[in-house]
From TrEMBL, chain A:
InterPro entries: Restrct_endonuc-II-like, tRNA_endonuc-like_dom_sf, UPF0102_YraN-like. This is UPF0102 protein SAMN05421874_12679. Transmembrane segments: none annotated. Pfam families: UPF0102. Keywords: Endonuclease, Hydrolase, Nuclease. NCBIfam families: PRK12497.1-3, PRK12497.3-3, YraN family protein. PANTHER family: UPF0102 PROTEIN YRAN. One of its GO terms (molecular function) is endonuclease activity. Belongs to the UPF0102 family.
TrEMBL record, chain B:
Residues 176-187 have a biased composition (Low complexity). This is Magnesium chelatase family protein. Keywords: ATP-binding, Nucleotide-binding. Residues 169-191 are annotated as: Disordered. Pfam families: ChlI (PF13541), Mg_chelatase (PF01078), Mg_chelatase_C (PF13335). One of its GO terms (molecular function) is DNA binding. The keyword Nucleotide-binding applies. InterPro entries: AAA+_ATPase, CHLI-like, MCM_dom, Mg_chelat-rel, Mg_chelat-rel_C, Mg_chelatse_chII-like_cat_dom, P-loop_NTPase, Ribosomal_Su5_D2-typ_SF. Belongs to the Mg-chelatase subunits D/I family. ComM subfamily. Residues 213-376 form the AAA+ ATPase domain. It comes from the Bacteria. The lineage of its organism: Bacteria, Bacillati, Actinomycetota, Actinomycetes, Streptosporangiales.
Amino acid sequence: MKPDSRLDLGRQGEQIAATYLERQGMTVIERNWRCRDGEIDILAEDGPHLVVVEVKTRSSRSHGTALESVRPAKLARLRMLATRWLATQPRTFETVRVDVVALERFAGDFALRHVRGVM
Amino acid sequence: MARTRSVALVGVAGRTVEVEADVGNGLTGIHLIGLPDTALSEARDRVRSAVVNSHYPWPDARITVSLFPASLPKRGSQFDLAIAVAILGAAGVVPAERIADPVFLGELGLDGRIRPVRGVLPSVLGAAQHGEVTAVVPSGNAAEASLVPELKVVPVGHLRELVEWLRKGEEPPQPEAAEPAQQPQPETAGEVDLAEVVGQPVARRALEVCAAGGHNLWMLGPPGTGKTMLAERLPTLLPRLDLDHSLEVTAIHSVAGTLTSNAPMLSRPPFVSPHHTATTAAIIGGGSTVVRPGAVSLAHRGVLFMDEAPEFARHVLDALRQPLESGRVTVSRAAGSVTFPARFMLVLAANPCPCARAEDQTERCTCTPTVRRRYLGRLSGPLLDRIDMKATVARSSRRELLADRQFVETSETVAERVLLARDRAAKRLAGTPWRLNAEIPSAVLHSDYRPPAAAMQPMTSCLDSGTLTARGLDRVVRVAWTLADLAGKDSPGQEETHTALGFWLGVK
């Protein structure tokens, strides 16, 4: 697989995830926010909560499922990034939540799983 | 959520452990709780690979596996199978109600193969006590598990095989070889025979008495006189173990991991001969995480032979005192305190001094008196006080060897006499927990089994002169009873007590 096709897959997955979250009643605030320490795929607003979303897309299960490839260390970094983002914002939220959206491609279609509040 | 059962071993006793698996929301992963050790924590990876490689779906969710009671430390890999089955039950691959009752034991290979584990016999014995009836064990352990009566044993070789059985709910596959227990076992000491030890009539007699009554023996003599040969032939004089003793012995050896799969039941009394550099932990039992039985427990219902006894570390020898007295040994470690059975016959062999040329006409001993005294002094008084019989084994001349040839008897002949004597003792002791003269406690010995006053006469004079202690008196009386059993008498006479006293005083 060429590098750009891998990027395409990731972008496609993030687009699907953003649409899905909007349909779940959340408001996407920002996508692909970057700073020196890393990137947050999607920042969304769920009522009074700030939701930091990690999107993971896999083209097949041959290397394990998309969900299990998200490790606790990654989530800890997302939490840290969330405080960085909040520091740049004037507004506040009641709580901060970390969600994972895992996508797997089957025969051109995607299977989606959403795990709320993993941390 | 699914629940099943397995067994944890505490010493040689099995405790039922409940294994619960919960598949719930959260990040993918498997969490194992309930005091697991390293081998058990690694079960996570073994179980996952085994399930995936057997082509069953692995739940892509947070899996929590809990082992109850949580406070009991759990060791080793025998929980793999129960963990796998609980997870498959929670994931809906196998019906949860089918796995709730049986006990699952076994280690999983990465390909789903089910490997044999240590300690299956004591584990299923423990499970059977609490009323469970079905035990799923690795096929390699099936023969061992089927020794337990009234237990349904389901041998499995592969995870697929097990899951298919649980799904279909048919009658369990029966163990192929259900009767290895009755199968005659090759004589472990078949090649050696008492008839080969020529020139030591007194020591041979001592060995016979020792075998008949379960007494302890000390043989003192220069090298090359046959002390080791004699000791190695002691098991050939002993009768086979009864069924309940066999189970006890097999359970200990199962925990120690010394059983072979083709001969799962030990029906011959064990013979254990530790090297003289052995540590206290090797003799008594020990280990930092898992407490394993030592030589004294492996020799349970058999013979513990300590060759070159004075070369053993002094604290090792003195550690034998508790098991010699009580028939069991308690080992305390950080992981907990464990009691193992340890009722054995102790046979000590010793050279008279380090240069080992003492009392010989042609060669002169080069050891100083201090060295000689210190050498045998390592066998402490309290230990020797627990030895019923002492025999001096001297070098025999050519004429003695030739003359003794016509008196030697085969092990078979002597074993028959031993068996008859043991039967007489067992008949007399019927209704008591003891079977051998050596096991009778002192108080009972004096109240119920006191030899006639005339027979006690040689001992009273020895007691008066101080050469015999109170404990020594008990030992002499026990040996006298065994001698009476061997002679077919109803109670020991003066001849028997004289001989017993001679054996007690044997080594000067």
